[in-house]
Design goal:
Blueprint lengths: L1 E2 L3 E5 L8 H11 L1 H12 L10 H8 L3 H13 L3 E6 L6 E6 L1 H8 L5
Parallel strand pairs: 2-4
Antiparallel strand pairs: 1-2, 3-4
Helix pairs in contact: 1-2, 2-4, 3-4
């Protein structure tokens, strides 16, 4: 878990290393392009919620925002990422869950 000023990122593993089995599983589930986005969510040490917004990721990867959005939605629908916003845009807090086990635990109501 990484706690930042306006966000908290909860991942299956705190390490930036992604095991080969996870790489294969994610690629077989969502494809190589969405895996590239997943690996960013899983490994980049974000400093705030703006950095992992679609626009922030778009700048990081030099992808159109629509490409980031489409692949993020694919990751969400596959249960590999999810995010929750608490509060409003000005005074709120975003919690990002990354990895199948972490997202499953969140949806099951298991405390993080």
């Amino acid at each position: 878990m990484i706690a930042l000023s306006d966000c908290e990122i909860i991942k299956d593993s705190p390490h930036s290393y992604i095991p080969p089995e996870e790489i294969r599983d994610v690629i077989s589930l969502v494809g190589a392009v969405a895996y590239a986005l997943y690996s960013v969510y899983r490994t980049v040490p974000f400093k705030g919620a703006k950095e992992f917004s679609d626009e922030g990721i778009s700048e990081l990867l030099n992808w159109p925002v629509s490409k980031v959005q489409g692949n993020r939605i694919s990751l969400q629908e596959s249960g590999l990422i999810t995010s929750v916003r608490y509060g409003d845009k000005r005074e709120g807090f975003t919690r990002l869950f990354v990895g199948y086990q972490t997202v499953s635990a969140f949806h099951a109501g298991t405390p993080s």
